[in-house]
Amino acid sequence: MTSTSTTSRQVLSTMSTAAVAASVAVALSGCAQQTTSSQVSRAASASSSAGSTTPAASGTSTTSSATPSAGTDGAGSEQAGTPAPVDATTAGAPSSAAPDVAARSVAPSRAALPVYFLGRDGTQVREGGGAATPRLRLFREFVPAQRSGSTEQRAETAANVAMREAGSRGYLNVWGERTVTDVKVGAGAIDVTLDGPTRTVDDATARIGTASVVWTVTAATGKNLPVRFRSPDGRVLGTLPTSKTYSRSAGVAQTSELAAVWIDSPGAGAALKAGPVVATGQACAFEGSVSYSLTRAGKAVRSGHTTASIACPTRGTWRVDLGRLAAGSYQLQVWAPSPADGQRDLGRATRTFTVR
Fold first, then answer.
1. Kindly report the CA angle at 8 between 5 and 9, in degrees rounded to 5?
2. What is the DSSP letter of 98?
3. Could you give the CA distance from residue 8 to residue 161 in angstroms, rounded to a whole number?
4. What is the DSSP letter of 134?
5. What's this model's pTM, rounded to 2 decimal places?
6. Do 115 and 145 form a contact (C-beta atoms < 8 A)?
């Protein structure tokens, strides 16, 4: 097996690998299905340069469903008052002269790597009348960069973290022992070289698993370009071929890949100083409605609702002041409530952090 680059090995040597089998179907988000005509009109007015991870014929330009976004660093940088890393693919508000919030080009941070992990979003879907299965979506996190390197080396490292470290971070590893050994940015595409055995998964899992790498390398390189995979057996994941190109998705199609809610800050496993804590993130929610609950040792601390900066199908930003928190371990859950009854949710994110 071809070895990963020196930069990737140095980063990955500090992390454990875990494989979690996943075989699930992927369906369009309920948020997209509930979108009002006025919201669709607003989204259509914003020009979008993103593509989709649906494969396109080789040599043609693709539109896929995968896109990076903005947020704060995984160590709770907002509380610390330090600048947050920027994955500008979803930063800012849409305008008639610019792509929408989920289609911006990325301004990579040297302090952290934007990584799109594959995980369950807390909802169930049924495929072909079968039993309900957990729905898979992409959750973006900023992972501290252990070593410096070129943009391409950082993208290689980020892709390997997305593939190999998902299980140890509470997400799903659908790639098995597969690794990225090289990333090259060209004028019209990003080339990603894979090595290791190709995992056999169903088509829906292969599609969203591939999307996790597409979103990660485009975010890490700051280039919204189609991605071409290279592999000894001509396959990317499952039966998806390397003869196709794969790109990020645009508009409503993003809801079939991106989780409805992200928590950007506090970061995963963050250790914060006692005092005021502010939670921030992104959501694609009906009428921008976002609910949250905070618990400590299983006991409710506070809960409530907030409104994202814009409603679905555009991703908006949200912010919640959690108040002054005493020392302890906390769990924050944030979700997009269903417009049908407000009791069910259309996807949720969970974050555990400590206050010292």
1. 85
2. B
3. 9
4. E
5. 0.73
6. no
